[in-house]
Amino acid sequence: MSSLPIILVLCTGNSCRSHLAEGILRNALGDRFRIESAGSKPAGYVHPLAIRAMEEINIDISSHRSKHLDEFLSDTVETVITVCGHADQACPMFPGQMNRHHFPFDDPAHATGTEDEQMAVFRRVRDEIRTVFEAYAAGRLDSLRA
To answer: Is 16 a catalytic residue?
Structure first.
């Protein structure tokens, strides 16, 4: 097991938002942290439009898989970040957990309409997540330099 601090991003289904955040955070933080995502009720897949939305910003999440948060209960999770209300309510405390943040976002998996209309929702949520998580990552990196 890696000795890097673990940042765990949680949402209910672990099919969209948490994977978008995981990819963006891993890209922003590099190899200083172990970034993971999971769900309280995993969907069992990563949404293809989430993968496509991330490809547009040159971040590859095609190898991600949908995981249950129980997979991390025996790990020392330093920070938990929830990205939907249900996961925030269902989130257990993890051994060694020092930080908890809640940054809620719309679930793009519920987008309707044509594929182009759905993709527009995925892009909007991706960009909102990118803004929040890149700012979070910058703060974490600043604190390492202090």
So the answer is: no
CB atoms near residue 113 (< 10 Å): 10
- Is residue 143 a part of any domain in this protein? no
**Catalytic site residue 84?**
yes
Cβ-proximal residues to 40 (8 Å cutoff; 6+ apart), any chain: 10, 12, 68, 69, 86, 87, 90, 91
Q: Is the pTM of this model over 0.90?
A: yes
CATH of the domain at 10: 3.40.50.2300
Choice among 53, 84, 87, 132 that is catalytic = 84
Active site residue 11: yes
pLDDT band for 58, please (50, 70, 90 cuts): very high
Residue 1 within a domain: no
Residue 131: burial class (beta carbons within 10 Å; 0-12, 13-18, 19+): exposed
Give the span between the Cα atoms of 91 and 142, in whole angstroms: 27
Question: How many CB atoms are located within 10 Å of the residue 118 CB?
Answer: 17
pLDDT in tens, 61-73: 999 999 999 999 8
